[in-house]
Amino acid sequence: MDSLNDLFDQVKLYCRQHMVEATYNLYIDGLIPKSFENSNHITLGVRSGFICKILQDRYLGLLGEAFKATLGFPIEVELVVEEKEPRPSDDPALTGSLDQGNYEFTFENFIKGPSNQFAYAAAQAVAANPSGAYNPLFIYGPSGLGKTHLLKAIEIEIRKNHPDFNIVYVDCETFTNDIISAIRTGTTENFRMKYRAADLLLVDDIQFIAGKESTQEEFFHTFNTLHSAGKQIVLACDRPAKEIKSLEERLRTRFEWGLTADIQPPNYETRVAIIKRKAELLHMDLPYDVAEYIANNLKNNIRQLEGTVKKLNAYYMLEGIDPCVTVAQTAVKDIMGEVQPIPVTVERIINEVARTFDVSAQDIRSTKRNANISSARRVAIYCIREITGMSMENIGKEFGRDHSTIIYNLDTAAKDMAKDSHLRETVADIIENVRS
């Protein structure tokens, strides 16, 4: 052999002849020969700890056989995970990784269909001509249909064509937490400099702005500053702006200044195309009848389609189980049965109420009795009862209070909402946000 690389090319060829192509592509093809010491010890670089563990458990013997067949004598194979320094342009949120089942959120990888064609075209127009097409672009639709994909695709395209742009991508929850932190630490000027200096501002899950007065106030001025300066704003939401009940009218109007584009659940043909594409990105040969079964049983959420394909891929890679309709039935059942545990939901409710009322989650669980905290606590108790259906005794345990106190808080919350339409709308938005 002329070199270590030539030797390893022969070893890979041997492995390829003894493996399913998809498995070879995922586990063997990406290996990198690092060193060959004393003619009996070779070190191979692996791109991730996940891949390394699978190779150690399942394919180290095959690699040993391949080297012996190529060289004529046995050698010891050592696997090391490559420690790769990320380049400044590498963004983990944007870069695909096959071992994690992710993919690049580019326009090329977005599966178009009648349900999303308009939003896709609008996103492309904004990416091609930021601030010159539609500003703001407001994309809405139920969770899991590709809104985040389009926001990321806009970011990738603009970053590629305008490397000098200051791009800020944030979800509304992070924006809210940044405001709260800035107010508490007296760094609001730094906060404003971060967001108001953007050439492109993309905000995901803008519905979480509902009911949060400080957040709405700050976002109003951020929006005005950017829009007046001709900077591009893109927003994603799970519903039209007019359906965010506790959204201030001045913000609702601004959200509708540009173009509003909705995304609906994909039709059957689009679902099949999405499933097949996800399988291709995982180097998995998915039979058409399996794709058909998944498409017929998961109709409203692209993330569920992706999750099912990833589950089938895991069965194949880890257990050697070929994808078939029977296995797909199990995978679909698992995906549909993945309900968030009540303790996690309770925590989400308390955190969402805390951000809305500008108090801490600890305050809500505490015995403090000032008006704002007491009101937030009542709303949290009401929302927990409404969303989870937990018994009053169990809700009491969450707050360290007895059954009668919980009843009192529920009754008081109901009376307060009956008298105060703004509070009623705020509670409705909190419940919608937690459920979305």
Kindly describe this structure.
The chain contains 19 helices and 8 strands. The protein has 436 residues and is of the alpha/beta class. It folds into 4 domains: 4-81, DnaA, N-terminal domain (GMP Synthetase, Chain A, domain 3, 2-Layer Sandwich), CATH 3.30.300; 117-262, P-loop containing nucleotide triphosphate hydrolases (Rossmann fold); 286-336; 342-435, DnaA protein, C-terminal DNA-binding domain (Chromosomal Replication Initiator Protein Dnaa, Chain: A), CATH 1.10.1750.10. The strands form 2 sheets. It has a 5-stranded parallel sheet, sandwiched between helices. A 3-stranded mixed sheet has the order 1-2-3. A hairpin with a 3-residue loop joins strand 1 (32-37) and strand 2 (41-46). Helix 12 crosses helix 13 (325-336), helix 14 (342-357) crosses helix 19 and helix 17 (392-399) packs across helix 18. It is globular, with a radius of gyration of 26 Å. Residues 84-103 have low confidence and may be disordered.
Quick overview:
This protein has 436 residues and is an alpha/beta fold. The protein folds into four domains: 4-81, DnaA, N-terminal domain (GMP Synthetase, Chain A, domain 3), CATH 3.30.300; 117-262, P-loop containing nucleotide triphosphate hydrolases (Rossmann fold, 3-Layer(aba) Sandwich); 286-336; 342-435, DnaA protein, C-terminal DNA-binding domain (Chromosomal Replication Initiator Protein Dnaa, Chain: A), CATH 1.10.1750.10. The protein has helices at residues 4-17, 21-27, 49-71, 117-128, 147-161, 172-185, 188-196, 213-228, 249-255, 268-281, 288-297, 302-319, 325-336, 342-357, 361-365, 371-388, 392-399, 403-419, 421-435; strands spanning 32-37, 41-46, 76-81, 137-140, 167-171, 200-204, 232-237, 259-262.
